[in-house]
Amino acid sequence: MKKSVFSFLAAGAVIVSLAPQTRAMELDPRVPQILEDGGCPRCNLSLATLRGMTLEGADFHRANLREVDLKEAVMPRSNFERSDFRRTEAERADFSASDFAGASMRAVDLEKSNLNSSIFRDADLRDADLNAAVMTGSTFEGADLRNVTLIRAIAQNTSFKSAKLDNANLERMDLLNSVFQGSRMRNVKLDRAQAVNADFSGADLSGARLVSTNLSGANLTNVDFDGALLRRTRLKGADLTGASNLDPSRIIDACGDENTKLPDGITLEPCSY
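The chain above was modelled as a monomer; its predicted structure follows.
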């Protein structure tokens, strides 16, 4: 009985925590049971209203959470492995240290969410909104991030190894020490991104925009730059050994230093700042 009462109180606490304009919103009637059970693996929760729900260490593996309202949910250290998150609304949610491996997340809205230390290995995040999300220490290895928007997101020490990022918008991202080794990044936008010491070795950056991008100390060995634009790109200490298809006419006001390693035929002015 005590456990049941606690569950209903917890559900009530969720409602109280909502913003004034949403307090009247009725949560899904299954919320108390979900709280009591610590999740709902393999459940069909499509279109449910779970806004603001707080549940640490929840288990939703293989659950159908398609088009669910999870705005401002607090669910750190949870299991969403192979779940269906397509078109789910989860702005400002806390999913830190959670597992989304193999999840179907096309067009999910995770704007301003906390995804630090989370796993998105082999997840489908095509067309997702991750603007201003924080994902330091997370892994997106093998994930499909085509057409994703990550403007102003923070992804320090994050792995995008072998991910697909064609047409993704990574403008103004903080990518300190992040890894894009072997990733496909055709027509990606990296304008004003801070990618200091990032590893892009073997990546396909065909058609990429690198305008005012800071690639100081970056590993750019064997990168394909076919059609890429490097304008005011900062390359101090960067290693471009084996980089291919660099067009000198598309390297405009980029700069390096005595530690920058360049392929034959490419020269840079020294950075003045």
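DSSP finds two helices and five strands in the chain.
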